[in-house]
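go over this:
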Amino acid sequence: MRDHLRAGIAVYNEGRYHAAHDAWEAYWLDLDEGDDERFLHGLIQFTAVVHHASEENWSGAQGLAESAVEYLDGLPDPYRGVALDRVRSFLAATAADPHHAAADPPVVTHDGEAIGYDTLDFDATAIAAEVLAEAGRYDEEAINDAVDRARDELDGDGGSQFVGMVFSFVRERDQRPVVYQRLRDHVELEQQKDDDVRGLFE
């Protein structure tokens, strides 16, 4: 859960409120009922509260704030490293006045640290890359291929080209379209090399 958790927190803290839940959702859907399921369900609804408030959907923000408080109620603070009292306080204030959510969305911390893209290790960065690809209408297959090739590099093939590009795609927000184009070009080049080698043995 840690990598998914940190990736979603980073995406949220960087202002991509709607996209943040994608880092948690697939993991959450596989959980049985229990504290972890309630925790992620509450966080997903929390990010939806902030998203609705940013879109001035006050009734949506208020209703989800009330529901999210219920999911997170009774969990210890911190839980899984996340400072929940700050989140619960924000949700309670938003349930009372939804305009509160637009004025003061809290930074989410993990293990006492405000998580951003530059604090993620590779596995969490890979999750964030996939989330940002989907949210930004980038070719998800190209990103997934780059992540797979980066994992091969980390497993010892001697390269670091794709590792660097995956980190850059996530961390360099203003340059993301340029980084993506370079990443996609390299993916296509490597795919062509793979196809050429396969062709020799068919």
Remarks:
- The mean pLDDT is 89.
- The domain at 1-118 is CATH 1.10.3450.10 (Hyaluronidase domain-like).
- The beta strands are 109-110, 113-114.
- The CA atoms of residues 18 and 72 lie 19 Å apart.
